[in-house]
């Protein structure tokens, strides 16, 4: 005969009720959270797989944000380049208009005035900022304005040649920026030319004009060497301009040598003007086969305002100005269009990567849902059944707990 004490009856009943209550609470938690697995003990195998899927989704989410950032940056650059092409196209139209032989000097001055506005417009585009306030064409120097005017009022590049890249998937990186030097500055020129620059050591604030080549044969004798220019005491109470080949130190003829603020002079086939100079001021004519889009427009403006077509050789110089300017503008457009083509390839790569990441996210979410999400119909049915069983167990325990030998006496 097996003897069952009252303590065993109570202990077994309580344990049974606790087990039923734990199961009921677990089902209730699943319904309230919508998750079948709320802690590793609910399903250790599923919990491990869910953890890996969460890590994968976090990785995909990071790359999706990077891909969206890359897409936004590239689209902004594409819009800026498209706008710059529109500006250069308008400059080209004005250049063709300036080639009309019937125009007066006033007409050419009017064209030059609009060209100045277009030049500033191009500079504004080249100084475009992104959403974070950084200049998109400054390379790594995002806080530095890409193009600024030097002391002579000419636009020069101030950024570096860095190119930012962003990882948009494991092992997949895409450039998200392009420096302005490669797009707007390093542009093939129609013929060897020069860029006039005042020395940073000058203290007088002297300026030098954009200038232009007026004697191609003389200029070619010096090219590709730079031309150094200085303003010195002429020994008679005045100032004069001296020049020499910076590479060979050979002196160059300056015509006329006497310095007058704003007065034109020629050296090695180049014509320029210096303004507000003092003794010891220095300048450089940097010769090059390349010329920035800004300098091409600046020299066009200079020629429209300074070439006297009625002077000997003036008409030929003017025709050369128009022809070279059109060629330079075409080269500038080609440089920008080439970069647009590169951007198109990058944007396609970003778009395809975004599609892949989206598919990966959807697939991983589906698998995680299957492992983690609760089946509400099944859970509610289980909750109803568990509630019924618990209620029955409670009633049964209440009946059993009242049984004793004293009830039979």
Polypeptide structure, described:
- A hairpin with a 2-residue loop joins β3 (165-169) and β4.
- Helix content is 53%, strand content 16%.
- The mean pLDDT is 87.
- The chain has a 5-stranded antiparallel β-sheet.
- It has 2 domains: 35-187 and 291-373, f41 fragment of flagellin, N-terminal domain, CATH 1.20.1330; 193-288.
- It has helices at residues 6-33, 44-98, 105-126, 180-185, 216-222, 293-306, 314-372, 376-401; strands spanning 147-149, 155-157, 165-169, 172-175, 188-198, 207-208, 212-213, 227-233, 239-245, 251-252, 254-255, 264-267, 270-275, 282-290.
- The chain has 409 residues and is of the alpha+beta class.
- InterPro entries: Flagell_FlgL, Flagellin, Flagellin_C, Flagellin_N.
Set down the secondary structure blueprint:
Layout: H1 6-33, H2 44-98, H3 105-126, E1 147-149, E2 155-157, E3 165-169, E4 172-175, H4 180-185, E5 188-198, E6 207-208, E7 212-213, H5 216-222, E8 227-233, E9 239-245, E10 251-252, E11 254-255, E12 264-267, E13 270-275, E14 282-290, H6 293-306, H7 314-372, H8 376-401
Antiparallel strand pairs: 1-2, 3-4, 5-14, 6-13, 7-13, 8-9, 8-14, 9-10, 11-12, 12-13
Q: Write down the overall geometry.
A: elongated
Low-confidence stretches: none
**How large a portion of the residues is in β-strands, by DSSP E?**
15-25%
The tally of structural domains comes to 2
Average predicted local confidence, pLDDT: 87
Largest sheet: 5 strands, antiparallel
Q: Which fold name is given in CATH as the topology of the largest domain?
A: f41 fragment of flagellin, N-terminal domain
What's the CATH first level of the largest domain? Mainly Alpha
Give a count of the beta strands, DSSP E runs of length 2 or more.
14
Span between N and C termini?
Answer: 22 Å
Pfam family, one: Flagellin_N
Protein name: Flagellar hook-associated protein FlgL
Keywords: Bacterial flagellum, Cell projection, Cilium, Coiled coil, Flagellum, Secreted
Domain Flagellin C-terminal: 327-403
């Amino acid at each position: 005969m097996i003897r069952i004490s009252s303590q065993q009856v109570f202990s077994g009943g309580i344990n049974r009720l606790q087990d039923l209550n734990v199961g009921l609470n677990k089902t209730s938690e699943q319904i309230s959270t919508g998750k079948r697995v709320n802690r590793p003990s609910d399903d250790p195998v599923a919990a491990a797989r869910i953890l890996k899927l969460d890590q994968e989704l976090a990785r995909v989410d990071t790359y999706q944000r990077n891909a969206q950032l890359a897409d936004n940056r590239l689209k902004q650059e594409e819009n800026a380049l498209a706008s710059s092409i529109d500006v250069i196209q308008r400059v080209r139209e004005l250049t063709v208009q300036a080639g009309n032989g019937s125009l007066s000097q006033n007409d050419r001055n009017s064209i030059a005035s609009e060209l100045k506005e277009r030049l500033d417009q191009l500079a504004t585009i080249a100084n475009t900022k992104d959403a974070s306030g950084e200049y998109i064409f400054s390379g790594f120097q995002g806080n530095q304005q890409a193009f600024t005017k030097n002391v002579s009022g000419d636009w020069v590049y101030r950024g570096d040649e860095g190119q930012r890249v962003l990882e948009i998937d494991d092992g997949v990186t895409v450039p998200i920026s392009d420096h302005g030097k490669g797009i707007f500055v390093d542009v093939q020129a129609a013929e060897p030319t020069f860029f006039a620059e005042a020395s940073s050591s000058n203290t007088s604030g002297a300026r030098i004009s954009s200038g232009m080549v007026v004697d191609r044969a003389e200029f070619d004798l010096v090219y590709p060497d730079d031309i150094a220019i200085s303003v010195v005491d002429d020994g008679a109470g005045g100032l004069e301009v001296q020049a020499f080949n910076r590479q060979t130190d050979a002196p160059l003829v300056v015509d006329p040598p006497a310095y007058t603020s704003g007065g034109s002079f020629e050296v090695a086939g180049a014509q320029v003007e210096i303004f507000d100079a003092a003794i010891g001021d220095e300048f450089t004519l940097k010769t090059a086969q390349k010329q920035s889009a800004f300098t091409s427009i600046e020299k066009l403006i200079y020629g429209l305002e300074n070439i006297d077509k009625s002077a000997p050789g003036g008409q030929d110089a003017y025709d050369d100005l128009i022809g070279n300017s059109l060629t330079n503008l075409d080269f500038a457009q080609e440089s920008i269009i080439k970069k647009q083509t590169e951007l198109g390839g990058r944007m396609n790569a970003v778009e395809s990567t975004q599609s892949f990441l989206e598919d990966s996210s959807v697939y991983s979410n589906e698998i995680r849902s299957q492992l983690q999400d609760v089946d509400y119909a099944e859970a509610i049915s289980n909750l109803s059944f568990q509630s019924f069983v618990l209620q029955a167990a409670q009633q049964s325990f209440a009946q059993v707990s009242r049984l004793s030998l004293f009830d039979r006496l």
